[in-house]
């Protein structure tokens, strides 16, 4: 709510609608409260003022009635505004912020010498209808005095800007009303002198000197007298800047935010090109940018002129080309032929909102530029003029920081204190709101105007209905988009509405699949899409495959129009069919040479794929959702989107319910996928028993998951069965995938020759099929085998090759694993700084991707590295975190390894009992998981604990047992050698 006293008493809503305050006494009450703005007015004073010294019999009740009427009028205009009239002890006060009362805003502007903005607030005499009343007279006189002061200040500024000619002619009228204002006389004298009228300047001084003597009996003050002497001697210090070129550009009421670089770029373009067109969607700020770029144009000696074309009838201008020329001539004050008038002038012409006049404007601009070599044209529109020599500059939405700053400034204009009170949390909320508003300045300003009454959270929560929320007053978001819509033909409207069902953009194939239909042939879609892009209703991404997108506000408007046409359901079905087909086709290509291309394509279509799944699930189309999830499963796996996939499969299974016949395959596949995802992310779940008829790839998938979950026997059985089927079917990818799993299991069981054979065959087959994910997995296995052999150089080369391939394809789970392997190699080489750097990077990537297993693996590596450096507290912190994770997810092999490491920490501290307990639990878990390498590690650790207790014989025997299970290369013998040395020092067998 805003209040005006700089003219007739007025009240407006935040959106600019005038509020009716009925009743002379109610209006007088409001005027009295505004006179005392911010201060409590005693009830007795209000009664005296409102009833002009003749109060009614029940004066207090009558006043309360008028207060209630005032509150009601404010509340009806803007909910919550009744609270502005506040009951105070013994009276009332108007609880309005200074920014809500024009007199207070005027005072602030006056204090900061922003005279032009200050005077623009005036609509007539202060407190116009109440200026003569006893309660308002002093306030009105004070404001009128300040108004004259502002005029004097502005006059001085205008002289400094070189506007002396206009001022010399304008000031006599003001001086007639204020004949004794020496400051005004000084401005006039200087203006006359600068205009070359020295005699008139001296005569003006003589007039004020005589008037002062006659009416006040005083001489002119020292400043006026000094100016007189300067005029007499033609002091060079009086010289001011030259008269600026004429212009009709409006003076902006607010500062332009976030467009500093844009203004510079547009000005540079205007220096180099004679026709520049600013294009962009509704509300992006084309006009405001054009006005700012046109200000202070040094190469437009004859001025910059704005021609607003929004009100020109398009049909009339097309029928009669003279209509447009006449509008331009009228704006420039030109009589006769426009081209002749411009021929010898250096003028900048701003043609604003030209899109509906593109054809006649194009012809006229070409003619004018040809006739007037000094003319430059800056056009704004939602599409180009498409004429030779035109330089386009698409106006982008505001970036995050600029959008937040604009929002803050516009809220602060109406709600003082907002910017100061806003914290980091508010900044993020504002940034999210501005992002949903597409960074469009118009939308941001309209939303900011709603904050004072609704609050930031409520405005953000109502953006789904943005056109109603931001839809009152003269400036509305809907009006801006209605204008663009009305300029489209029926075919373009149909295509725009139909494509609004897309989420996250679309390519031309999708556009044709979705938008072709009644009234639009498939062959016409491309042309319509191009036209919509030219009109700034679609954005175009020209990198790689050309792709189109919509701002959220454009899409919201177009969806409303689509619903009005009754086509929303049909277009959503087309959208679902098309992208379900994309997912199915991608699944056929994700295990071969086109893996990279299809991964990136699905990345690009993530928004559409999610929208389709959500729609299928919302409509209880469970079987279709199951099939789509099945098609996307491998993509989700490669990208490490395990939890997203788990949620999608779970929702689809719930929506589909029990199924039989042809649908049972999709359901069993979904159950396998969900079980696999639970294993990879260590989620507690009921085990899935595969049916006998389970396809080989699903059987392999379940085996892969159980292997990663630590259930080696079950994993080996499943994968061996799948391998037989793959070999019989000649499925090379399946064979490679099965061999890669079996190779890891052979390694865990200590059968190194088998692991090497299986890893090498898997790598060869994956390379034949072109699957780089599989190649990275096989390389990692061979790298670990090289590490076990003590060939750390070869191991590093294999891991780096696998890492490079995974990074190129953005297979982040694989990247995490390979970086961790490089960390382990660095630790074995004694380079703990490099090891920690690798593990820290692995931890960072895993956390960014929310890869639970990767996070735990990296922390285990950091813990093991810290232990070997003697940093036992840091080691225990990392290892304890990993222990907690593995206890929660039931991963026996992982828990066994972590407990062994914690056992060594306790042993290094000399805590034999804790070391023994940890190693015994580790040994039991490793045996239960059939993990011989961890069995050997726990056995070595138990020997270390017993050596501390003095049981050297048993400790030596355990070291020998561990050596038989898994011989160690030199770099891994640190723990064994330390324990053996302790045994030797105690006089017992070393166990070596």
CATH superfamily of the domain at 2-138: Winged helix-like DNA-binding domain superfamily/Winged helix DNA-binding domain
Strand residue percentage: under 5%
Q: Using DSSP, what is the number of strands?
A: 12
Helix content: 55-70%
Shape: elongated
The rounded Rg comes to: 40 Å
By CATH, the topology of the domain at 2-138 is: Arc Repressor Mutant, subunit A
* CATH class type of the domain at 2-138: Mainly Alpha
Mean pLDDT: 87
Major sheet summary line: 5 strands, parallel
| CATH architecture name of the domain at 2-138 | Orthogonal Bundle
Q: Output the structural class.
A: mainly alpha
Runs with pLDDT <50, length 5+? 420-424
Largest beta sheet: strand ordering: 7-8-9-6-10
What's the end-to-end separation, in Å? 89 Å
Count, helices: 48
